[in-house]
Structure formats: structure tokens, C-alpha cells
Design brief:
With 273 residues, the protein is α/β, with parallel strands linked by helices. It has a single domain, classed as Aldolase class I (TIM Barrel). Strand 8, helix 9 and strand 9 form a beta-alpha-beta unit. Helix 4 packs across helix 5. It starts with 9 loop residues before the first helix and ends in a 5-residue tail after the last helix. Belongs to the TrpC family. InterPro entries: Aldolase_TIM, Indole-3-glycerol_P_synth, Indole-3-glycerol_P_synth_dom, Indole-3-GlycerolPSynthase_CS, RibuloseP-bd_barrel.
């Protein structure tokens, strides 16, 4: 189990090196067969893709509101940090879904954060992590996740298809994340309708909304574009919507606000119905 080094570099390479080591260690403690059993014994999933579609159909932005304590680019983002209270606040604002960071070394996240957030609300939840191995997909469902993230920059095509197939067998949604045209072309070879366009370069951590300006219009009408990172203002939302994306993933901006409900609501209602 080794990272595909020809696909990665810089910050992403360091994160993935840690992730492969973590998965080796944790899968030795809980073998694949046991984790798969836990995943298949978990309760029913919530419809992540459907929740986004419903929000857009109702004239709102389909907001995936993120819960994370820290990040490599932003340092400590929120302290005190209460995933359950944040989930309730986002639900009150009208968010369609949640995204919860579960990576520990780089984001100070945990499976417990996801479980607490999901238990506190009715929203579907994305496990935000660096998925590189089938074991993690089963772990995601076992902890309660309704959707997983597949970062094309971190995966070979073979890996991406394998992880997607497992997620679909567990009735989970998949958000395929891209940052350039080549990754978009690869993502369109997957079955998932959800195509995330990350405005942050994971190798340099630089954020630029022009990435969505370029890539969102290239996404076919049968897919659902989701613009991620760097979205802070109602005007940013309107810009992304003009590109053709009515679904957004926003985290750090919301988490730095004293009233996350008001901040999330301002983005959700930034466009007319």
C-alpha cells in the first residue's frame, strides 16, 4: 500500500505519506473484513446528492457546510470547537449537507467529530479526508458518513474506480474533486454525478476562484458541479452561480464567524430563487 508518487507533490505528498502510514497501522488493528461488517451493519444512509438537488430546486444554494477545527493553510480555525452545535447551526441556516474533517494529523479531526455532527441534525454528511484505500470507505460508512470525497490528484484511475464502486455498494454518494482540466476529464469517467471543483491548489495551498470560472462551464449538464474553497461573500456566490454551479462547499469562512447560522444563511440566499 504505497502512494502513487507520480501523481502528487509538495503539501499533498506529505499529507498522503502520513495517510498511507495511518491506514496501514489502523487496518492492522481492525482488519478489512471486520470493518466491512461494521459498515454493512450501520444504519441507512441519508441522500447526499438528493439533498443538494432539493435545495437547488427550491431556489437556494446547495450549501455543503464544513466542520473542521484546523487546516494546514489556516491553522487553528475555531476554538472552542463543538461539532454538534455547529451542525445544528448549519441546519438552522438551511444548509443542504455537512462536510466533516476526520483527518487527525493535519486537520485535528476525528471520527467522533463526524458521529457527533450527524447525530445532532438530519443533514447528510460527507466524510472529508484523504481516501486512498478500500478500508477507509468501509470505515467511513461505519462512522456514519453518507458520502466520501475522492481527490483525483491523490488517486490513480484504478484506485478512484475501486473506491467509488465500494461506496456505491454501501449506498453512499461520492464527491469527485478536481483542480484542472486533466483531473476533470478523469472524474467524468466515474459514475458519480457530483464533481467538486477545488479552487485551492492542494500542492501549494493557493486559492483562486478563477479555477471554477474555467472548469465549471466544462462540466456536462448531467453532472452536478460543486465549487469548493475560497468562497466568502455573497458576490463570490453569485460569481460561482454565473459559472454554472449552484452547489458550494464552504468551511473556513463560516467557521471564523461568531454567528455561523447568519453567515451560512447569507451565502445560501445570495441568489434569487
Amino acid at each position: 500500500m504505497n502512494a502513487p508518487t507520480d501523481l502528487i507533490s509538495d503539501t499533498l505528498a506529505r499529507i498522503l505519506a502520513d495517510k498511507y502510514a495511518e491506514v496501514r497501522e489502523r487496518s492492522a488493528e481492525t482488519p478489512l473484513a471486520e470493518m466491512e461488517r461494521k459498515a454493512r451493519d450501520a444504519g441507512p444512509t441519508r441522500d447526499f446528492t438528493g439533498a443538494l438537488c432539493d435545495a437547488v430546486a427550491e431556489g437556494r444554494v446547495g450549501l455543503i457546510a464544513e466542520i473542521k477545527r484546523a487546516s494546514p493553510s489556516g491553522g487553528l480555525i475555531r476554538d472552542p470547537f463543538d461539532p454538534a452545535e455547529l451542525a445544528k447551526a448549519y441546519e438552522a441556516a438551511g444548509a443542504a449537507c455537512l462536510s466533516v474533517l476526520t483527518d487527525g494529523p493535519w486537520f485535528q479531526g476525528s471520527a467522533e467529530d463526524l458521529a457527533a455532527a450527524r447525530a445532532a441534525c438530519r443533514l447528510p454528511v460527507l466524510r472529508k479526508d484523504f481516501m486512498v484505500d478500500p478500508w477507509q470507505v468501509f470505515e467511513a460508512r461505519a462512522m456514519g458518513a453518507d458520502c466520501i470525497l475522492l481527490i483525483l490528484a491523490a488517486l490513480s484511475d484504478e484506485q478512484a474506480h475501486e473506491l467509488e464502486d465500494i461506496a456505491r455498494s454501501l449506498d453512499m454518494s461520492v464527491l469527485a474533486e478536481v483542480h484542472d482540466r486533466r483531473e476533470l476529464d478523469r472524474a467524468l469517467g466515474l459514475e458519480t454525478r457530483l464533481i467538486g471543483v477545488n479552487n485551492r491548489n492542494l500542492k501549494t495551498l493557493v486559492t483562486d476562484l478563477s479555477v471554477s470560472d474555467e472548469l465549471v462551464p466544462l462540466i456536462p449538464a448531467d453532472r452536478i458541479p460543486v465549487s469548493e474553497s475560497g468562497i466568502r461573500t455573497p458576490e463570490d456566490v453569485r460569481r460561482i452561480c454565473r459559472d454554472g454551479a449552484r452547489c458550494l462547499l464552504v468551511g473556513e469562512h463560516l467557521l471564523r464567524q461568531p454567528d455561523v447560522t447568519a453567515a451560512a444563511s447569507a451565502l445560501i440566499h445570495a441568489i434569487p430563487g
